[in-house]
Amino acid sequence: MSSSASLHSGATPALIAPLAAPLPLAPRDAFPLLAADPALRYLDSAATAQKPRAVLDALRHYYETANANPHRGAYRLSVAATDAYHDARARVARFVGLRDADCLLFVRGTTEAMNLVAGSWGQAHVGPGDEVVVTRMDHHATFVTWQQLAHARGAAFRIAELTPDGRVDLDHLASLLGPRTKVVAFPHVSNALGTVNPVREIAALVRERSDAIVVVDGAQGVPHLPVEFDRLGADFYAFSGHKVGGPMGSGALLGRRALLEAMPPWQFGGDMIAFVGDEVTTWNALPHKFEAGTPNVGDAVGLAAACDFLAGLGMDAVIAHERALVAAAMERLGAIEGVRVHGPAADQRSGVVSFSMADVHPHDLATILDERGVCIRAGHHCAQPLMRSLGVPATARASFWVYSDAADVEALAEGLESARRLFAA
Amino acid sequence: MSDLTELYQSVILDHNRKPRNHGAPERFDATADGRNTLCGDALTVWVALDGDTLADVRFVGEGCAISKASASLMTQAVKGKSRAEADALFERFHALVTGREAPPAEGVRGPLGPLAALAGVSRFPIRVKCASLAWHTLQAALHREPGAPVTTE
Q1: Which residues in chain B have their CB less than 8 angstroms from residue A362's CB?
Q2: Annotated catalytic sites of A, by residue?
Q3: Averaged pLDDT of chain A
Q4: Which of A30, A388, B64, B140 has the least C-beta neighbours within 10 A?
Q5: pLDDT band at residue A11, thresholds of 50, 70 and 90?
Q6: In terms of CATH architecture, what is A4-30+314-424?
Q7: CB contact, 8 Å: A423 with chain B?
């Protein structure tokens, strides 16, 4: 089902490039929404990605040919649905470098995955006097989930601060680790700044100083970088399907088998049970123990198609493409009067540029850009603790993906220049 | 005039740059905090009453040009009005920014006076919250038991 052949067929449109800059890695016409609106400059892919045609086709194909309730029917159609679901799990697991595919749990997204780890492992293992560590750059999905777990269990909640250029301060993080540390959670990539965190290095630091589990929010990792879970050193890794080009409401939690097997179920219902007695119930094996109720087969199939699509492009090529765009954008935006770009150097980021313009609020920028068909995010990016440390109530954020190109950067820059002129009037 | 220049006309930009009645007062009778969680806008409104009259209205806040200019224009518009008059003004203002009431013709001073500068908001439905935040907060200060903050969400 890979669509890689068509992606490298030279269908990339020619550009009058004002910068010696990137063409799209995947052509816009592989994305029906972008193909339908050639003037649209969609720069909010960190919020959600546009969907490749291959994903939409896979969804339709599943519902038209294999839709039934899996794991239940003693008829061929149900077997087809079951096979589609298991096949999707195997393909997604392979894409993220997880050999033991039964340790990939399908969930609604990163938020649900984080709540699963906190609600199951956290409730069982974190107690009074223990410590839970997150970072200043965590998304609310991580930050609030662990903050509330810590409060509920009487544990201390600690926040690792950042360096001035928006990276996790590893010395400060190290100083927070000790024998009472039970959980260390952090993003693979900051959604607000684009900072790529050194996951292996942080995991090693945690192992050296504590027995804590390492929980990684990979929502901005999997769409942009090669991920090999088995070699990351993390205990849990979560991501959302919709940011990978898959359907909204899809996603996965990857975990180490020993931990998942020892964890209590998080939700109860059909599929997750082995034997139900009048008094006692036993649990099904992995992954089913954590997938109560009828699974979301269609979206799992769509997510697998998205992973195949990205595998066809090559994740090394994806991150290289995004970094070229970020470098071009940082240079172009940095030359505009009053613009301040937040976060680290381009080679330490995914395709995110978070910025402020003096005297023009991000929300006003977003409206002015929207009039030119340029979609950016303005706000706190579900990272209010980070905004406080940057000393801004909100930032404007442009984010790139495989279909982004130099014309997007130029449209953004021209929109910002027009905002500058409008507010100087 | 394009929709954008209508939205960001000079009155708005002026009040954004130099908000009137800005800063905490020494004495007040009612106050409330307002918050727009979508964009992080947050402001506080204070009212000093003289009987039923809004003798002074002041604000501080962080936010976009629309929310700041709207707050600034509001403080000028409601000062000296009774509570009922302030409520009625909000009704008309809300009708204007949501497009239910047409703005006055160019050069004509309508019943909303300078508040009509915000008529351009009606073309930008997602910005209605920005324009109304200060008003919702004023309403909360005047009519609500003190306590929970206001949100336009």
Answers
A1: 39, 64
A2: 382
A3: 93
A4: A388
A5: very low
A6: Alpha-Beta Complex (3.90)
A7: yes
